[in-house]
Each structure stands twice: as C-alpha cells, then as structure tokens.
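Our collaborator T.R. sent over the components below with a one-line note: 'Predict the complex.' Nothing else. No constraints on interfaces, no templates requested, no preferences about which chain binds where. So this is a plain run: every listed entity goes in together, and whatever single assembly comes back becomes the starting point for the next discussion.
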Amino acid sequence: MKGYRMYLVLISLALVLVSALGTGALGAGKLDPIRIGLQAPITDQWAYEGEMAKNCVQIVADEINGKGGILGGRKIEIVVGDDQGSVRQSALTAQRMISEKVVAVISTYGSSVAEPSATIYEREGLLNIAYGATAVELTERGWKYFFRTCFKDDHQGTFFARFVNGTLKVGNVAVLHDNTTFGKGLAEAARVSLENANKAKIVFYDAVTPGERDFTPILTRMQKTNPDVVYFTGYYPEAGLIARQMRSLGSKAIFVGGNAAINDEFVEIAGIDVAKGSLTTQEPLPIHLEFPESKGFLDEYISRHNAPPSSPWPVYAADALKVIAAAIDSTGSTDSKVLADYIRNEMKDLPGITGPIGFDSLGDRTGAMYLAYEVTPDGTLQPYQPYQP
Amino acid sequence: MVLFIEQLVNGLTVGAVYSLVALGYTMVYGVMRMINFAHGDFFMIGSYLGFTLISSAFLGRTIPLWVALTIMVLFSMGGVGAIGIIVERAAYRPLRKTSRLTAVVSAIGVSIFLQNAVMLIWGPRYRAYPSWSVPDVTWQVGGIYINLMQVLILSISIGLMVALYFFVQRTTVGAAIRATAIDHDTARLMGIDVDQIIRLIFLIGPALGAAAGVLLGLYYRQIHFTVGWTYGLKAFTAAIMGGIGNIPGAMAGGLLLGILEMLGAGYISSAWKDVFVFFILILLLIFRPTGLLGERIAEKV
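Returned assembly:
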C-alpha cells in the first residue's frame, strides 16, 4: 500500500516537472496557436478531394508559420474535421468545429454537404469559407458568415452555353444531372443559358441517381434523341461509367463534364479509349494557373506529394486559408463578425493562388474564370483547341 | 420490342449478380436463422482480390483470357471463403448461444471492420479494373446488342447456381445441410457435425459472393470499398423477394429484382427506379408474406 502511494507521488512529481519544463522550454513569449478548421471529405467517396484539400491547406499554413505566423507571431494550427462528403455527417462535423472553438472554418467540398454545416456556422456566428461549393442558391440566403473562394455555377452554365454555340457549334444537347444541389443547379444554369441563347436545342434533360453503376436504361432513352453533345453535371464516379456505357450503346456524342466530372479517376474508370476526347468546362487546373503565387505553391505541393493536385478544388481551400489569415492579420481580431465585415467590404485583390481575391456583397468571389479542357490520348487534361482546318 | 428485350438482357445480367450475392444471405439464414449483414462486404472484398490479381504482373497480359479469368475467380472465391470461415469463428460462433440480435450487431461490426480494412489496404479512391481485362466484343442477335461480359456473367453465375443446387439437393453433404437447416439438435443426434456444416456454409456463401464481386468489377470496371453496402442491400432484398432461406428463391429473386430495376429505370425514370422496385416488393410481401418460393416455416418455440 505504501509503495503504491509512493509511486503515485512520484508520478505526480514527474508530471509537474514535465509541464514546468514544457512551458519553460517553449518560452514565455510563446502564444497559443490560432486554430482554423478544415471541414472536408477525408474518407468515403470523395476522400481523394478531401486529402488534396488537406495537403493544400497544410502547405499554406506551413508557409505562413514559417514566416513567423500571424497576429504578432501566433502560429496557425489546422483542425481537420471529416464530413465524409455526407449531408448528415456535415452537420455533426460543424458541431464539432464549434466545440473545438476554432476561429474560422474552411468548409467544404460539395454544395449539398456545405448547406447543413453553413447553416450551423451561421447560427453560431462562425466565419466559414467554402472551397468546393458552387451551387448558386448558397449565397442567396443572406448568410453573413458564409463566403466561397470558388465561383458559382451560373457562371459555368453561361460558359457552357457560349462554348456549345460559339466553339462546338452543334445542334442537339442532352443535359444529365444527378439531383444533388450542385448537379441540379449547374444543369439548370446551363439550360437557362442555352434557352436564352436560342441556338442549340436541348433534346434530353434528366437525372441519374448517384451511387448507381448501371445507367444503360436512361442512356438507351437518351440515345433515341440523337444528341451531339452530352453535358453531365454530376461527379466523376458516375461520369466515368456514363461516358463508358454511352459508348458501348453506340453513341458518338461528345461527352462534356461539369467541373466535378473529369479528373484522373474519371480517366481510370472510363478507360482511356473512352475518356480521350471528352471535354470539361471548369476552373483552370492548378498546373495552368499563372499567377505570382501559383508557381511556388505548386512546386512545394509537387515536392511533397510527387504530383500536382489533379483537380481545381483543393487550391481554393488553400486560398480560403489565405483569406482568413489576411483578414485576421489586417483587423488584428479573431472575432468572426469583424473578420466577415472585413472580407466582405474591404478585401480587394488579395494575391491568391487562383488569382486576385475579392468578394461581392453576397459573399461570392468576384471575377469568374473558366476554361474548356480536353482529355488527351495520354490521359491528361489540356486546354481545348478547336479543330481548325 | 427490341428496346424491351435489350432492357431485359441488361436486367438479367445485373440480376444474376444479385442472385449470387443473395445466395449467401439465404444460406446463412436457412441454417442459422441469422441475417449476415457483413455479407455485402465479402462480395466487395472479392472484387478487390480480383482487382489485385489482374493488375499484378503475374496475370498481366501474358496468359489467355479464359485461364486468367478462371484463376481470378477461383482465387478470390478461395480467399473470401477463408475470410468467411475466420469471421464465423471469430465473430459469430462465440455468440451462437445468445440472442439473434447480438449476432446481428456483431455482423454489423464485422461489416464496418472489413470496409475500413479494405479502405486502409487499397486506399479510399475508386479503383478500376484495367481496360484490357475483357475485350469489348459485342454481338448483334436479331437486332439486340449483347456483349461478351454479359454472356460471361450470365453463364458463370448460372453455372455456379446450378452446381450449388445439385450439391445441396443430390449429395450427402447437401442432405446434411438441409437437415441442419431444419433443426440443429436433431441433426446433431443423426450424427451430423453441425459446426462443420456451418463452417461449410460460411465457405460457400462468401465464395459465391466473391465470384459475383469479380464479375461486377469486370463488368463496370469501377470498384469502391462502399460497394458492398449497396449491393448487399439489393441482394438482401432479392433474398426476401424469393423467400429467405430458400435457395432457388434467392436465384429467382435476384433475377426478378434485376429485371424490375432495369424496366423501372428504362420506362419510368432512373431516379424513381428504387421507389418502383420497393413498391413491388411491398405488394409482393402483402400477398405472399413468405416471398415468391418461400414456404411457411413453423417458428421454433
């Protein structure tokens, strides 16, 4: 018994010593880190995107910390919350972020996923910046704490209509979406723009169910309408299957994906024989970014992970962190209200990796930029060059 | 009409895969009166094992297609069968004397364990079978397009199902399985090693699921560690439709489910297809609570 008590005393002493040493060694001037949340799909179907976002954010955080941090030497610490790309998990992750007492959150990939968490952040008054949520309606609710560093879908829909009428010059367009907030929003935006332009005709407009593997029934029906172009506004797992099954049904239509449909995985799933020649309307890929900040960031990313980020989204997460850090530094505050006011009203042309960053009164980023890409025979994406005789 | 038959062929192909998976549910239920919720994951692991084998240097493009296919199917059937036996020993046998609910919870635990294990081993990304696995050959028969993979799926799965049916109906071991399904204690009194039979069931069921997994991987080419849940649910539905515990019922249920799905998606709406399928299931269960071929089994007291 006595030995036991002695043991306890020793342990407590050791603990006291360790903590004393700890604070001593770190120095009295050492300040608490500033904790910033990253809500992203780290596991499950979009794990690929989540992982790249984490990598990107970490690079920016390391860069800022390497330069001495913000607010007079405070380091940035990233708190990662995994929303699994699911609507239900998104709300739970948001609750967790709030109990973790982060200063602001970078949140998240997927408009349907961002919706529940943004609602919670708004209620709790926590600054949140989405990096891959492009549905138009997200910024139409008068949310005060919601921003996004990505551009919204109606810009992309307009771009698609211009591209179909101006560059591809075809007659029949089929539009397929996947009933998600994002997919449906983009499809609607494309439909409205095409109808307003009144040139190419929409011959088929329908939805598929995400998570399915067999789309032959709906594609057989689509095939009957003889589309020249098929625009799929959903995500890559379905896009790869649709492109492939469309071909085996004998379709010769050009497959155009929205900005979540075409990436390495699309090429792998569809197979290069099918994937080559597919097009996509999207934000410029990281490797095609030509801003002063882009090059150094990409070099760092490649040296850490051996390849550049394969989709545009994770880089917007990096820019979201830059926005938050810049706002904290300029206002000298970590209060979400102060930060949100600053970002909305005063932030102009912040040099970001994806170009100068500024926001309009809704919280949308100003100055949209899209490109059409083509999948080349070696499976990479290159800016689309229309065939010129 | 041509369109209808094309949808029918598509439905049969998908349905054959459902049938193979459904057999696992129905056999385990028949012998143990327990729903093995981890069964969908056996199916998923099967497709991953096949993927590993075909993308390995060993199978590469060096040997003829049919040899490679046979090796692949047998290898993943064997591998998943072994996993099935381990799971039974580790997660179900210790609970056999407790309530059925305990075993179901244990099964869900196994399912989560297997999914996460696969995610950690093969990574969270979608994986794709190489495009040269099966050549893209399509035949036109009376205006209907049928491709090589559909023929392979139908023939392999129907072959396996026929073999299983004769095994259960015509052999001594099959008779022992049927006896165990009726009553464990009486079977034991007749000199049947019930533990051995249950082990056998956990070898055959997962092995059939694994074969379905490989076929699915070859057909759609895209596999993911969450696929077991979707297909498990569908196959479970098929087993219920056919009458759970009944082997020909699971086969019929799977094919019917596949056809209903394709017709629903082709003629109603892709997005409403599941609503259509489950509506038919509810109707079926109202008029035939035991499923298509299920017989009324006296509940044990």
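Summary for T.R.: The CA atoms of residues 58 and 281 of chain A lie 28 Å apart.
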